[in-house]
Specification:
With 343 residues, this protein is of the alpha/beta class. 45% of the residues lie in helices and 13% in strands. The protein has helices at 8-23, 40-48, 62-75, 91-101, 117-123, 135-143, 165-176, 191-199, 221-229, 257-273, 279-298, 323-342, and strands at 29-31, 54-56, 81-85, 105-109, 127-131, 148-152, 158-159, 182-185, 204-207, 235-237, 250-253. The strands form two sheets. An eight-stranded parallel β-sheet has the order 1-9-8-6-5-4-3-2. The chain has a three-stranded antiparallel β-sheet with strand order 7-11-10, with no helix packed on it. Strand 8 (182-185), helix 8 and strand 9 form a beta-alpha-beta unit. The radius of gyration is 19 Å and the shape is globular. The two termini are 16 Å apart.
């Protein structure tokens, strides 16, 4: 009988050890923070299943975040994180809420952390994870004291950058993996891909799209059905209408909501022209638009006019099932891939 350490499961455990230890989870698989989807039910289910759930704070007020963290803690005793957006006007108050609850991991998304935010999070004792879209920014974040990084490619759902996951991984893992734990995200839908990134030096991975149709997800049945019906090519990136308005592209399923966003960009660009809004306020308006459009789709089930944010791995989502079953399948596939490579 084989010693477990020489099996695919043993190899996977060794490769995930650093990431799992950092997160405090059984496996180094994070559930990416998705606004309106990554709330108490999905987050606690993910952590209870052995992965690492992350609350999507998005446009929440400090009071709403306070209630969400408390509700999540009531559903799980396992570690979970909170994702905060760097451009949120109440960022310092949101950090204070996390500190008050003793949140162990804070994920900052949306650009370079504003002055004082890194220090405030670190002072709370929480581990800080940041998104790094470029190698130069990754190195800067590490120098500033970030504990771990997520590198996310353009295949992901929601806000995306211009470079694919496979290219980012090749460019950044050899340079960074020995300095801090690096989690790879974007377009991952099966365990074989997880095994590949672990072999390249990743400490773990982050998936979002794959978990939207979990039984525990509060997403509207119509939202889940849209995912189950969709193919990879249906998840398209939004178009920037005005070069002066720096709109970060968003990947979502094709629908009339894309045209509504184009109209919104025209409206905001006109306000900029007329001096009605400053650039920071214009960007915030775009953020609020996405938050509202996403809510219409996720919560209300308006999958035609709302924003059905999805990554290109959506083609690998073919049914609704418990999050524990999704996680088990990913682990099984990753272990089998590692065993096959060692044969």
């Amino acid at each position: 009988m084989n010693d477990r350490s020489t099996t695919g499961e043993g190899r996977l455990a060794r490769r995930m050890h650093r990431g799992a230890q950092f997160l405090g989870s059984e496996v180094a698989i994070m559930a990416g923070a998705m606004s309106w989807v990554s709330e108490r039910n999905l987050v606690s289910a993910m952590s209870n299943a052995g992965g690492f759930g992350v609350i999507a704070c998005g446009a929440m007020t400090p009071e709403l975040l306070d209630a969400e963290i408390a509700a999540t803690k009531a559903l799980t005793g396992k570690p979970f994180g909170v994702n905060l957006i760097t451009m949120h006007p109440a960022l310092s108050d949101l950090i204070a809420v996390c500190t008050g609850h003793g949140v162990g991991h804070v994920v900052l998304a949306g650009g370079l952390p504003p002055k004082g935010s890194v220090e405030a999070i670190k002072a709370s004792g929480a581990k800080l994870i940041c998104f790094a879209p470029t190698l130069a920014l990754a190195k800067k974040l590490i120098r500033s004291g970030v504990d771990a990084l997520v590198i996310e490619g353009m295949e992901a759902g929601g806000h995306i950058g211009p470079v694919s996951t496979s290219v980012l991984a090749q460019e950044m893992l050899p340079e960074l993996a020995d300095q801090v734990p690096v989690f790879v995200a974007g377009g991952i839908g099966r365990g074989e891909a997880i095994a590949g990134y672990l072999d390249m030096g990743a400490a773990g991975v982050q998936l979002g799209t794959r978990f939207v149709c979990a039984t525990e997800s509060v997403a509207h049945p119509k939202f889940k059905q849209a995912f189950i019906r969709a193919s990879a090519r249906d998840a398209v990136a939004s178009v920037q209408l005005d070069a002066r308005l720096p709109v970060i592209p968003v990947r979502a399923l094709k629908n009339a909501g894309g045209e509504l966003f184009t109209a919104k960009q025209r409206e905001v660009a006109q306000s900029l022209d007329e001096g009605g809004v400053a650039m920071a306020e214009a960007q915030l308006q775009i953020e609020h638009y996405w938050a509202g459009a996403l809510r219409r789709a996720v919560i209300d089930g308006d999958v035609e006019h709302g924003s059905v944010m999805a990554g290109q791995s959506v083609g690998m989502v073919d049914k609704e099932e418990p999050i524990a079953a999704i996680l088990a399948a990913l682990v099984r596939e990753a272990a089998a891939a590692l065993e096959k490579r060692a044969a």
